[in-house]
What does this fold into?
Amino acid sequence: MESLLLDNIDQPSDLKNLNKEQVNKLCAEIRQFLLQNISRTGGHLASNLGAVELTVALHRVMTTPMDKIVFDVGHQCYTHKLLTGRRSGFAKLRQLDGISGFPNPNESEHDAFIAGHGNTALSLSIGMAWAKKIRHEPGWVVAVIGDGAFTGGMVYEGMNNIGSLDNLLVILNDNKMSISHNVGALARYLTHLRTTTAYFDAKNNVRSFLDSVPVVGTPLKKALTEGKTLLRRAMYHSTMFEDMGFQYIGPVDGHNEEELERTLRTISQRPGPHFLHVVTKKGKGYQPAEMNPGNYHGVSAFDPDGMPDPEVAPKESFSTTFGQALAREAAQNSRICAITAAMKYGTGLQFFSHSAPERFFDVGMAEQHAVTFAAGLASQGMLPVVCIYSTFLQRSYDQILHDVNLLQENVVFAIDRAGFVPADGETHQGVYDPAFLSQVGMPLYAPSNYAELTYWLHELLKDGCRGPRAIRYPRGGENARLAQYGCSGQDYDFLHRTEGAQTVLISYADEMDDILTACEKLTEHRINCDALKLVKLFPFTEKMIEAVKDYKIVLFAEECVEWGSIGEHLAYCLQQAGWNGTFLHAAVHTANLPHATVPQIKQVTGLDADTLAQQVMDAWMKGENIS
It folds into this structure.
């Protein structure tokens, strides 16, 4: 059996001695390795298949960690991880104690920065490049940015501030743009000219000569520059990148490693800032992913030979239940609009986009714009529903505070992937929104099953509701045990009651399953307790506070950061009401959550049933405030 080149690549330096044929063979091996391994573990497939040659060429030319490669978004970094000594780690990709699905400096010196959210690479790279200049350190800073990230505003804020960074290279990994044959051929020819040493030498010689010619030299140089700009405007339809200070190069075939490498070598010999436009095909080398890259962006384990059809949102999930319910509501109310930030399928809004396309808006990777856009719609009498993952909603906090909350605009926030999220790790956990939304007094609801989601969405969309409000729900499907309770239509419900109980365990959403299990364990130890489920998380009703005051021990568990959380609000309200019992708060104490399954994350954070039960038993053993 022929040995694999990949088996001998342990560090980027191992790439530099390969010949052309070996490089092409290595790229094919990497693509096969990714397909085989991601099909076993799950992960980001299509984006990584499309970035193989680009990543190999980068590591053939650059020298990390002296040269910094910043990925935006980080889900295109798998080849980078393979080439930087983490091949064996792919067996536990995105699993507890395995390697992350995103770059992380804590994992490798070759990872320049953590990268789970989009639009950040250019701003980060500018900061790193300036740090190198200030310290007189050698090396390039390379920002690899997917075309989807260009729908977010931070990219343009960064481009407007590149200054005179001669050590900055921005690579646009464009996997969507289609270039016609004629224009593409001529553009490639001009790119070839621009990336040869002769071109730059001639350019510099002409400039030097014209600078030395008295009277007419400067005007002539200006005329030549303007002529070049007109030509480039005709060729590329825009000179935006050059107007902002970049030297634009491209488009370059992102699957021609030899051409990429030659281009990068030439760029590395010339001062920047450079903007390299690379055209790739998402899902390259795997036909199902090439034909439908959106469905193969992030996948669970699958049979690569079985022509699978994984979906971003499964047929039965909170996301699809929400999307179908919202489409029904919109059919009855022409004021309802739906807004998402590049997550139409992930948030279940494909149903709305089909039934009411004129009221559906995908604003791209631009959460800040989405929220202020919603405020504008609401100010004119519309009823916008902003559908964003919890981990991305935090990017629009200022807009929520200033543009929605101050004037109490009539905006509904639908917060998907709330609470713990498996596999993606610390960058994608939905553990902040209850804290930052409750701090501004926004009514917040958390259904624990489909029936509650459908009921409370209907209630929040009624004409009688005013001001901002939010409904949050977890990733995936409903918990079978919690589904059995249906929907009472009440702000809170007791799911378990025991005569004479002096302890109550409180939570919301799918954490209630652990609460119920903890109650069962406590009963085995002859500790009677009740289980209270909140649907309306904030603000609390007086009736609910009065009900909780009857207990000597209150345990509140939540998949939320501890500080400013619903639990802290409850403890304060109980104290203000004169309660002096024992309050136990189980919440998230660290932002560095592991990439693992949800049960594993709960064990790490102490939100599993065993730990919750033990906390109550410890409080009973101490006998604090127990009559």
About this structure: The CA atoms of residues 435 and 566 lie 7 Å apart. The radius of gyration is 28 Å. Residues 20-41 form the longest helix (22 residues). DSSP finds 25 helices and 19 strands in the chain.
